[in-house]
Structure formats: C-alpha cells, structure tokens
Amino acid sequence: MSSRLPRLRCLYSSPTINTSFAQPISSRSFATEAPEPNPSIRRRPTTFRDRLNAGPSFSEFVSSPPSAEFSTPITTNDSPLNDPPTSEEPLRTALVGPANRKRQITRLPTWLQTPIPTSPNYKRIKSDLRGLNLHTVCEEARCPNINDCWGGSDKSAATATIMLMGDTCTRGCRFCSVKTSRAPPPLDPHEPEHTAEALKRWGLGYVVLTSVDRDDLADGGAHHFAETIRKIKDKAPGMLVEALTGDYAGDLEMVDLVAGSGLDVYAHNVETVEALTPMVRDRRATFRQSLRVLERAKGAKEGMVTKTSVMLGLGETEEQIWEMLRELRKINTDIVTFGQYMQPTKRHMPVHTYVTPSVFETWRQRALDLGFLYCASGPLVRSSYKAGEAFIENVIKKRKAGRDVSMLQELGGLERERIVQDV
User: Fold this and answer.
1) Residue pair 252/222 in contact by the 8 Å Cβ criterion
2) Strands 168-169 and 240-244, bridge-based pairing
3) Which one of 200, 323, 335, 412 has the largest count of C-beta atoms within 10 Å of its C-beta?
4) CA torsion, ordered 77, 83, 86, 92, to nearest 10 deg
5) Residue 198 phi/psi, 5° resolution?
6) Between vectors from CA 299 to CA 297 and to CA 305, what angle results, nearest 5°?
7) Residues forming beta bridges with residue 209, ordered by sequence position
8) Alpha-carbon gap, residue 167 to 173, rounded angstroms
9) Contact 368, 100 (CB under 8 A)
10) What is the largest CA-CA distance in the chain?
11) What tens digit of pLDDT does each residue of 346-357 get?
C-alpha cells in the first residue's frame, strides 16, 4: 500500500510538485477556531435576503393588509356576482415571477385574512386529537376558521369537525385538498370509541362529524359512521350531533342507516350550482344525486334538520344560484350556508371571483325570504360554522321541548278521559 500511494498521488498532481514524504506537514487547528478573515474575498450581495430579514414577521404579513408598494387597486365589475369594490375594500394585484416572465395575480382581500393559530387552547385540542389518532376536516381541508373554532376562551367553547374513516378520500374533487387514493388504508375499529371519548372529554354541546368518501367499501362506511354516532349518544346523551356525509354512491338505504342512528342534523353539501358540478366535483358526484340524499334524510326521521353548503366564486351566475335555492326548497332543506371558495394549492381550480361581504349578505336575505330556516353567509363561512351551530342547537332544543310539551298535553288529555270514564 505504501508503494502505491506515491504513484497515485503523481497521477493527480502537477509534475512540478514534489510528492516526497519528507515535506513538512502543516499543523492542524482546533475545530472551534474561527478562520482568519480574508480581505480579498468579497461578500456575495444578498440585497433581497437583507430586505426580507428586516421586514415584518410572518404573522404580521398574514394579518396585515397588503403594502401599497407591491399592489395596485383594481375593479371587478365583470363578475355577475360582485358589486364594484368600495374605497374601503379594494381588490389588489401584484406582479410576480422572474423579470422576463412576470404575471399578474390578485392578492387575498383583507376580509379573507385570518390570524395564525397560536393559542394554548388550540395546542391542547391538537394534542388530544393526535393522542387519540383522530383527524379533523379543519386541518385536512385547511379551513381558515381553525383559529376561531379551536382557540376559544376555554375548551368547552371550542368546536372541531371530526373527520372519520381516515384522512384519505377515494374521490378527487377539484376544490378539495384532502388526500386521495383508490385504495385508502383500512378503517380503524377503535375510531368510534376514541371519537366519543374525545368529545365527552371536551364537554361540547354541539359536535359535527364528517368523513372522507370511501367508495372502496361496500357500504361506503355508513355502518362505521352510525356506530360512531351511537357511541357518542351513549357517552353524552345531551350532546347534539350533526353528520356531514357523502352520497354513498346513491345508496339511499345507507342514508336511512345514518339518519336513524340518533342523529340531530343531517348535512350533505351540493357544493356548487348544477351547471358547474361536473367541473368542480368528482365525476361520481352529481347535483341531482345530492338532492336525493337530502330528500331521503328529511323523511328518514321526524323532525330531522337537513343542511347543505355552497361555495361562491367559482364562476356561477345569479340565475344559477336562484335555481339551486329553489330546488333545495322543493325538498324542504332547512339550512343553507354560503362561503367563499379559496384555492388550497396551485394544483386545484383557481378562484374565479372574490365575492364581497355585501353580496354574501344579499344572498343570506334572499335565502331567508325563500323560506330557509337559517342561512349563514359570509366570505369565511364553512359547512360547520361556529355561529351557525349555536343557532341550530337552540332550534333543535326548542323543537324537542315543543314535542315534549305536546306529548305531556296528549298524556294529560288521555288521563282526564280515563278519570271521566271511571266516574
């Protein structure tokens, strides 16, 4: 080996360099010693990095309105659903990309900016969910209201939408950021028990359950869903449960199964108007199929409250929304919510229009005028909206109280008739 070493060194060294081992070897320095500065080496310019480090923090960037230096106001009168922006609510654009390939984007309006969740209550709820291996649509769908729903003053005031049957869906809707796969992992048999235990621990009065679509299962996961509801009712009989389900591939018997498991509110989202459904939702989901699910759920149990949600900003027109609302009222849907579609990632369909809060308020009033029991409408409203849950909870309790009074009156009347007959 010693005879080869000089030869190898000669192959990769200049002929003028002496490879003899008699050469003195430079002394080694400690690892902690700082190297001597070389004044001849110039520092690489980092103008952008220095500017970025001196700028606002990430939380300030998210919650503050965009700087005038990088944006200019625009109008959006071309949209059929949007009124002209006021001076207080201008939409802004910015040029992004390399110098030779810049493109214009619309910045997120100020009414859609939300704070980053950092409260202790948010962290506690997240820890509970991870400890029980539970998933929430709040996280998987990147809901902007997670700070409001999870970060209440105490845990009993918080709410979370539990997502059953894993975090992987068998469908691929163009608006949804939930993971997709043709063969998701098998169901967790302990999930119903874990879910009921977590909700009992939180002490909530109203809870929302949802699930991914599982077309790989014969029943679409309906039995698993129903078992979870029964477990919750066993552990917390006074808790009101809302279930946001899929369409079970049109199997209405599965709708009956879930609706008859002790449910208080049956929710199924039509997501958008009928004309846009093929472009927005998975090809296996249709507008008419969703109407059949809501209609069947309404008749499955006396007093069942049915609910659906719609996204605006996908390119729908006024007439299309009117037609959708009329179809929902034909099947006696009780509650409808409107919210702004927000593109989760660049792979999903882009936002067509940022709808202003005044337009949302207009549609809220129109829905109530058509006869809907309740309508939550706003840019940040989602299917399981916290304020809406409080209203629905009160409605259900009043209905139950009314039924109890009617039952007592009927029993009292029967008792009086019996006494008269005995006399």
Assistant:
1) no
2) unpaired
3) 335
4) -50
5) -65, -45
6) 60
7) 162, 243
8) 15
9) no
10) 132
11) 889 999 999 999
